[in-house]
Amino acid sequence: MTPEQAIAADKALSLLQRTLLITDGTVTQLLELFTGEKIRVQKLEHELVQGGPDKLGLGAGESVLSRVILLRGATQPYMYAHSWLVPARMPAAMQDAMRHTDTPIGQLWKTSRLETFREIVEYRREQDPGVSALLGMPGPLLSRSYLIHTGGKPMGLIAEKFPAALFA
Fold first, then answer.
1. How many CB atoms lie within 10 A of CB 111?
2. 84 vs 146: CA distance, rounded Å
3. Quick one: which of 155, 83, 81 has its CA closest to 118?
4. Is residue 129 part of a domain?
5. CA separation (Å) from 99 to 56, 63, 67, 108, 155?
6. Domain CATH number, residue 117
7. Averaged pLDDT, groups of 10, the chain, 168 residues long
8. What is the total count of domains within the chain?
9. Domain assignment of residue 47, yes or no
10. Alpha helix locations (H) across 70-135?
11. What is the pTM assigned to this prediction?
């Protein structure tokens, strides 16, 4: 059984939880649909660092953009995400928009008409008190990590977390 099949068959998860975990589409749009709210990005961290996750296949001295955000509605955050993105593998206009706007990554790909493939590499149930505090909900989190490929190379790795109780 593949990880996607295991999540799809996990009856302890609601349909919305399973959808958020296995989708390879834009999570921001799903959240807007299910919450009825306009979802916006709140940047918590946005910095260029040396090195990054091994899964990105970085060259010596290659920089990575470490970006931590909350996806939030009018009154509450719904999801936490930490992205490691390789600027050298992104169009210049997309890099600029990431620095100067709060546009969600999925919408930037769409605007750039960038062909991407998402490969989900991990699903988890976890406790992370720091992230739970940022989301304003104690308790377990549902998480997933995925690679974004473009041009035959990984352009980024994104880890997303949301409170299990919120979408139960």
1. 13
2. 11
3. 155
4. yes
5. 21, 15, 10, 12, 17
6. 3.40.1410.10
7. 71 78 76 90 91 88 92 94 91 81 75 79 92 94 91 92 88
8. 1
9. yes
10. 92-100, 105-112, 129-135
11. 0.85
